Amino acid sequence: MTKKNLFCFDPIEDLNAEIMILGSMPGQESLTAVQYYANRRNAFWKIMAELLGFDPDSSYESRLHALKTARIALWDVLQSCTRTGSLDSRIDSGSITANDFKNFFHTHKHLRAVFFNGAKAESAFRQYVLPTVSTVNLSYMRLPSTSPAHASLSYQQKLQAWQAALKPKCGFIR
User: What is the pLDDT of residues 72-81, one digit of tens each?
Assistant: First the structure.
């Protein structure tokens, strides 16, 4: 496998978003499909469907609408990087460019909480973004990665962790 220059997608957003969920960089299946969390073995959409009450097999547009309706924004910390394959551990740290969170936070005044989908999203945010932005009114929390590569927790354990974190912050969470 060769290293590829990768670029993330635009954020899934609404100006009324109160919660932001951040991944690190889309995996190969997501990049090919041009959809967040397109890998069927990734538990993200299954967890969101359970928490927000929609069909995980509904159209991508319907799933995005459910997030927006629940005032949840979705994005990645990294705007671009070089990586071989899909694993975060294969990201070349010297190639990282972070997304423009300064502008995002400035235009999304209702944000209250940022949740990281895994350790790499959190560490990249803390290293590349946090020193450049003022986010005193935001709370931050790392959640277990929904990636199939994070197999140390069962689906049920991941679901319970996500539910416990999001339920107090979002009135739509079951």
Answer: 999 999 997 7
Domain-wise residue ranges, the chain: 4-166
* Cβ atoms within 10 Å of 26's Cβ, excluding its own: 23
Please state, in angstroms and rounded to a whole number, the distance separating the CA atoms of residues 36 and 84.
Answer: 19
Give the CB-side neighbour count of residue 9, counting CA atoms within 13 A: 20
Query: In this model, does residue 47 exceed pLDDT 90?
Result: yes
Q: Catalytic residues, which ones?
A: 42
**Helices H / strands E in the chain, number of each:** 6, 7
Helices (H), 23-154: 28-33, 44-52, 60-69, 101-107, 119-124
User: Domain 4-166 belongs to what architecture?
Assistant: 3-Layer(aba) Sandwich (3.40)
- State how far the Cα of 126 lies from the Cα of 80, in Å rounded to an integer: 16
What's the pTM value of the predicted model, to 2 decimals?
A: 0.91
